[in-house]
C-alpha cells in the first residue's frame, strides 16, 4: 500500500507540473488585456464556487488542532496572496518563457530557506549551484531585448523571483499541514482566502468594458483546472512524499513552460539567453545531493523522514 501511494504521488506531481507549466502561457494571454489583480480575483472566485459545491464532502474530513491557525494563515498569505501578486505583475513585464525559467530556482531556494530557517546544513556544492543558477537568471535577463512579449524583462523576472520566494514559504507550510489536513481542504482554503484578499485589489483596478469568450475560457481553465487539479495534485503528493522530493519536480517547469510559450505564443529566445539557460540548469544539477550533515532518522520503511520545524513562520 505504501509503495502504491508513492507511485500515485509521483504520478500526481508529474501531472501537476504539466498543468502548472501552462499557467504562465494562460496568464500571459489574459494579463495583457485585463488587470492582473482582476484576473487573479476572478480566478479565485471561480475556484471558490467549485469548492463550495464540494464543501459538504470536504469539511467532513477536517480536524482542526489548536494553534494550526498560524500555519493556515501563513500558507494562504504565501500562496495565493503574495505569490499571485508578484506573478501577475511579473507577466506584464516579462515573457511566459522567461518567467518559467525563473522557477528553476525554487528547489535551490527551498534548500537555502531550510538552511536559514530550519538550521539545516548546506553543502558547498549546493551553495555553488544556487549561486550559479542565480547568475544564469541574471544573464538571461540581461540578454533579453524589449519586445511585445517582454517590455521590461529585468523588472518582470525580479518580480517572478519574489513569487518563488513566496512559493518556498508555501511549500514548507503545506508539508506541515498535509500531515493532518486533506489536500482538497487546503486547496479550497487557498481559493476562499484568495477571493477575499484580491477583492479590494481588484476593486481598485481598472476593469475591462467586456470580457471575451476566449478570456472567460482561460479564466475558467485557471480557476478550475489549474487551481483544483494543479494545486490539488501537488498538495496530495505532499501527503506521501517529502517536501524536497516534491519541489524537485519544479525543475520540469522551465522546459514545460518554455515549450508551451514557443508553440502557442510564438515566443523565441536569442543565443545568449539559451546559453544562460544552460548555466541555470548546470546550477540546478550541481545543487543535487544532500548537505554535509549527519544522516536523518529513518522510519520503519527505511525512508528518510524530514520534519518541518514548528517554529517556522
UniProtKB/TrEMBL annotation:
Report how it sits in the membrane.
Multi-pass membrane protein
Please list where the region (Disordered) is annotated.
292-313
Name the predominant localization: membrane
Q: Which InterPro entries match?
A: AA-Vitamin_Transporters (IPR050638), EamA_dom (IPR000620), EmrE-like (IPR037185)
Q: Which residues cross the membrane?
A: 12-31, 37-57, 69-86, 98-118, 125-142, 154-172, 184-204, 216-234, 246-265, 271-288
- Where in the cell? Membrane
Into which family does the record put it?
Answer: Belongs to the EamA transporter family.
Q: Protein name, please?
A: DMT family transporter
Amino acid at each position: 500500500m505504501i509503495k502504491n501511494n508513492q507511485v500515485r504521488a509521483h504520478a500526481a506531481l508529474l501531472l501537476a507540473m504539466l498543468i502548472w507549466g501552462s499557467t504562465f502561457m494562460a496568464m500571459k494571454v489574459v494579463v495583457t488585456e485585463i488587470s492582473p489583480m482582476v484576473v487573479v480575483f476572478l480566478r479565485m472566485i471561480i475556484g471558490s464556487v467549485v469548492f463550495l459545491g464540494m464543501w459538504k464532502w470536504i469539511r467532513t474530513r477536517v480536524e482542526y488542532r489548536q494553534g494550526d491557525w498560524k500555519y493556515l494563515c501563513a500558507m494562504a498569505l504565501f500562496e495565493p496572496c503574495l505569490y499571485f501578486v508578484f506573478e501577475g505583475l511579473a507577466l506584464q513585464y516579462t515573457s511566459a518563457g522567461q518567467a518559467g525559467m525563473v522557477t528553476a530556482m525554487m528547489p535551490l531556494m527551498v534548500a537555502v530557506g531550510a538552511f536559514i530557517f530550519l538550521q539545516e546544513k548546506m553543502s558547498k556544492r549546493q551553495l555553488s549551484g544556487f549561486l550559479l543558477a542565480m547568475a544564469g537568471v541574471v544573464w538571461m535577463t540581461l540578454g533579453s531585448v524589449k519586445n511585445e512579449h517582454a517590455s521590461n524583462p529585468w523588472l518582470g523576472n525580479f518580480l517572478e523571483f519574489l513569487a518563488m520566494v513566496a512559493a518556498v514559504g508555501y511549500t514548507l507550510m503545506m508539508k506541515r499541514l498535509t500531515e493532518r489536513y486533506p489536500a482538497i481542504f487546503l486547496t479550497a482554503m487557498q481559493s476562499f482566502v484568495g477571493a477575499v484578499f484580491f477583492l479590494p485589489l481588484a476593486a481598485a483596478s481598472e476593469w475591462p468594458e467586456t470580457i471575451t469568450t476566449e478570456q472567460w475560457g482561460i479564466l475558467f481553465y485557471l480557476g478550475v483546472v489549474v487551481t483544483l487539479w494543479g494545486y490539488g495534485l501537488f498538495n496530495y503528493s505532499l501527503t506521501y512524499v517529502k517536501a524536497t522530493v516534491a519541489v524537485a519536480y519544479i525543475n520540469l517547469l522551465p522546459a514545460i513552460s518554455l515549450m508551451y510559450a514557443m508553440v502557442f505564443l510564438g515566443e523565441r529566445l536569442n543565443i545568449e539567453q539559451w546559453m544562460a539557460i544552460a548555466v541555470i540548469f548546470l546550477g540546478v544539477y550541481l545543487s543535487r545531493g544532500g548537505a554535509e550533515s549527519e544522516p536523518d532518522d529513518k522510519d520503519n520503511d527505511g525512508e528518510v523522514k524530514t520534519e518541518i520545524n514548528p517554529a517556522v513562520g
